[in-house]
Amino acid sequence: MTYFKYYKMKRKLLPGILFIITTGSIHAQNKSVSSADFARPDLVRRFEIHIPQTRLDSVMKRVRTATFPRQMPSRDGASDWETGMDIKWLKGLQSYWLNSYDWRKQEKLLNSYPQYIADVDGYEIQFYYIKGEGKNPLPLVLTHGWPGSTLEFFKVIDPLTQPSKYGGNRDDAFTLIIPALPGFGFSSMPAKPVNANTVAKLWNKLVTEIIGYKQYVAQGGDWGAGVTVRLGYFFPDNVKAIHLNFFPGITVPDSAQTEAERKYFASINSWRIGGYDYWRIQADKPMMAAVALHDSPLGTAGWIAEKFWAWSDNYGNLDSVISKDRLLTNIMLYIINPGGIDGSFWYYRGALSELNASTWPGYVNVPTSISKYPADMPVAHPPSETPRRGYNVVRFKEMPRGGHFAAMEQPELFAQDIREAFRPYRN
Description:
By secondary structure, the chain is of the alpha/beta class. Helix content is about 40%, strand content about 15%. It contains 15 helices and twelve strands. Helix 6 (about 225-235) links the parallel strand 9 (about 215-220) and strand 10 (about 240-245).
């Protein structure tokens, strides 16, 4: 029998969120996790998400009363998404949100795996911790990016932790650690903008000192790729190998570029003219977007959904690869979380203040696997020689389909790719 204790968080970092502390197993087919599974149980507490109804009512009232601008005509008869938003599509999302979407059902989904809050060097880090089957599941840290969330990985949790139930071998099982970046989900806001250098140190401490795995592997896309790269760079004694489904980029002098690299960097520069404006706003003028979006759920939905449309392998139909339920739940995690969507902008600002806008920390010696998904943005499509300049690339794979949100879009391909990439590092 599972016992529940309810209490309101007193911390200023997490206002208006009701957490449920539990003991026992949450997800029936996964091993339960107890305090004995942590090296520092004093720094970890179990929780579930329960958003007060008054908070939900406030969000839905603003969704209901939102008004729309006129649709600007696209250039040359292109899709209305070319202007930044297809208003007809957004009106359809609003209708679904009001009439069909069920947050409580999605909240139950979010709570269907064991999740915790850990005190890591003064940061409150939310993370999922799901133990794999078999005698020796390999610890794997999965790190999300923007505008994704820990929800990105939900379709691959069971295949990765329970491969024997999906036609695989139980010896390929992983134990998953899926943290939310600071300012995202229910991780606390940082005191100042941070980025991958800080987060990699937090993640390594969470895994090695608080949970207690001395060696592990790591995977990430988008900002999660930046964190994963730095895990390999800073902690080669702990991180056995890394996998990226997004290439964070590296600078190659013009005189040293191959012909394939010249075409690659030209495509990035061309894309940045119209595709990088969100990044500049969120990093250079984050409070402009923060003021516009913080109190506008529908505006937040449009801001996030446009990137899901632009970066996913959807052939002009976003609903065909990411359902409205999944999309809205991901969006809601930016609306009802303690930091709001503007909390995620701190991470972009941190790229300037902490990384000086550099995506590469130095040569990464740990074995690195890179998978290129065809619909991702141009920076994610380097010729093989480019990443080899800065990484110990042991596997470089062209995926047949999928985009920026690989685990959401193509969970079967993603899970199989992860199994294959990390199989050599299980001993």
